[in-house]
C-alpha cells in the first residue's frame, strides 16, 4: 500500500468516526431533551398575546379599559377561565403552577406595523425580560413554558386596509402588499422570540417555547358578518372578501410553521420550540362538534336582543361566546389539545 493511499484511508476513517460521534452526540442531546420534558413538569407558564390569551391579569390604570365587563367573566374575553388557566390549574402539573400573563385584549405583534393602543407583544416580552432580570418573578426551577398567541388583530387591519384601498379585490399590487405585511408580522415574531431565547437570565433554567397559530378567519363569525357589511350585501363580493382573509390567515399560519421549523434547526438553548396545528383543530370542531361535547358552532352564545345583551341557556354547548372569542368550554378543549403537543 502506497503512502498516499494509506493517508487517504486514515483521513476517511477519522471523518467517519467524527460523523459517528456527531450523530451520537445529537441523539444523546435529543434523548436528553425528551427525557427532560417527560420527567420534569413545567414549573410556570409565561403568556404573550391578545384577547384569546388575556386572563384579566392586573394592569396599569391606563389600560383598565381593556378588561371586559359582565356578562364577560372577571374581565376576560370569555364566559369563564381561558386555556392558559386550564393548563396552569392542573393540566400541566400535578398541582397549580404560576402563570405570568402579559397579554392584552386588542394587542398586535408590533404597533409600528399595525397600530393599537395596547402593549404589543414586543413590549410584553420586553417587560417579562426586565422582570426576570430584576428578580420579581418566581418561575420555579423549570422548565418554563413560554407561549405566544397573537395574530387576529393584525390580520383584521391588513384585511380591511386592503379592501378599503381596492374594494373590487382586482389590483395585484394591493394583494401583494397585504401578503408583504403578513410576512412582516412573522419577521417581528421571530425577532421577539429570538431575543427572549438569547437572554441568559431568562434561560438559566430550562425553557420551552410554543407559538400558536390563529384560526382560519373565514370561519370566525365576526369576519363573516364584516365581509357582508364591507361588501354592502353583495354576496359574491362578500365571498371574495372571505376568501381573501382565508388566504391571509393561512399565510400567517404557514409563516409560523416555517419560523418554528427554522428555529428548531438552530437551537441555542436546551429547550424546544414548537407550534400546533390549530387550523385543523378548529375546522374539526366546526365540522364535528359533538365529538368535542359541543353542539352550536355557527352562532354566538352572547347576543344582542332588542339592544340588550342576552346569554344563551347552555353556553357549554357553544363554540363562540361572542362573535370572535371562544367559550370557556372551547378554551378547555384547546388546553387539552395543547397539552398533547407540549408533552410530546
UniProtKB/TrEMBL annotation:
Keyword list, A-Z: Hydrolase, Signal
Keyword hit for Hydrolase: yes
A GO term, aspect molecular function: hydrolase activity, acting on ester bonds
Signal peptide: 1-25
Keyword rRNA processing found: no
InterPro entries: GDSL, GDSL_Est/Lipase, SGNH_hydro_sf
Record PANTHER family: GDSL LIPASE/ACYLHYDROLASE FAMILY PROTEIN (AFU_ORTHOLOGUE AFUA_4G14700), GDSL LIPASE_ACYLHYDROLASE FAMILY PROTEIN (AFU_ORTHOLOGUE AFUA_4G14700)
Record's protein name: Uncharacterized protein
Amino acid at each position: 500500500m502506497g503512502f498516499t493511499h494509506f493517508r487517504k484511508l486514515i483521513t476517511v476513517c477519522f471523518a467517519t468516526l467524527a460523523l459517528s460521534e456527531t450523530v451520537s452526540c445529537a441523539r444523546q442531546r435529543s434523548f436528553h431533551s425528551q427525557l427532560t420534558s417527560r420527567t420534569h413538569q413545567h414549573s410556570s407558564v409565561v403568556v404573550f398575546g391578545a384577547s384569546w390569551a388575556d386572563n384579566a391579569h392586573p394592569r396599569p390604570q391606563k389600560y383598565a379599559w381593556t378588561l371586559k365587563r359582565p356578562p364577560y367573566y372577571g374581565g376576560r374575553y370569555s364566559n369563564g377561565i381561558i386555556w392558559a388557566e386550564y393548563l396552569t390549574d392542573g393540566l400541566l402539573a400535578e398541582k397549580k403552577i404560576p402563570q405570568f400573563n402579559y397579554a392584552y385584549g386588542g394587542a398586535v405583534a408590533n404597533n409600528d406595523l399595525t397600530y393599537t393602543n395596547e402593549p404589543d407583544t414586543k413590549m410584553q416580552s420586553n417587560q417579562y425580560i426586565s422582570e426576570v432580570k430584576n428578580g420579581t418573578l418566581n418561575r420555579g426551577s423549570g422548565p418554563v413554558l413560554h407561549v405566544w398567541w397573537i395574530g387576529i388583530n393584525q390580520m383584521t387591519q391588513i384585511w380591511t386596509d386592503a379592501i378599503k384601498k381596492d374594494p373590487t379585490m382586482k389590483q395585484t399590487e394591493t394583494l401583494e402588499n397585504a401578503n408583504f405585511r403578513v410576512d412582516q408580522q412573522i419577521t417581528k415574531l421571530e425577532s421577539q422570540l429570538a431575543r427572549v431565547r438569547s437572554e441568559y437570565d431568562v434561560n438559566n433554567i430550562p425553557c420551552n417555547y410554543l407559538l400558536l397559530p390563529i384560526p382560519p378567519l373565514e370561519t370566525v363569525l365576526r369576519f363573516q358578518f364584516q365581509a357582508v357589511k364591507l361588501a354592502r350585501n353583495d354576496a359574491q363580493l362578500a365571498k371574495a372578501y372571505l376568501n381573501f382573509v382565508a388566504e391571509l390567515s393561512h399565510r400567517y399560519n404557514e409563516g409560523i410553521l416555517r419560523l418554528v421549523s427554522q428555529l428548531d434547526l438552530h437551537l441555542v438553548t436546551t429547550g424546544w420550540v414548537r407550534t400546533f396545528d390549530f387550523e385543523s383543530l378548529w375546522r374539526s370542531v366546526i365540522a364535528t362538534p359533538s365529538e368535542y361535547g359541543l353542539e352550536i358552532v355557527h352562532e354566538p352564545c352572547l347576543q344582542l336582543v332588542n339592544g340588550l345583551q342576552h346569554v344563551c341557556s347552555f353556553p357549554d354547548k357553544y363554540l363562540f361566546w361572542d362573535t370572535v372569542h371562544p367559550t370557556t368550554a372551547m378554551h378547555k378543549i384547546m388546553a387539552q389539545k395543547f397539552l398533547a403537543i407540549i408533552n410530546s
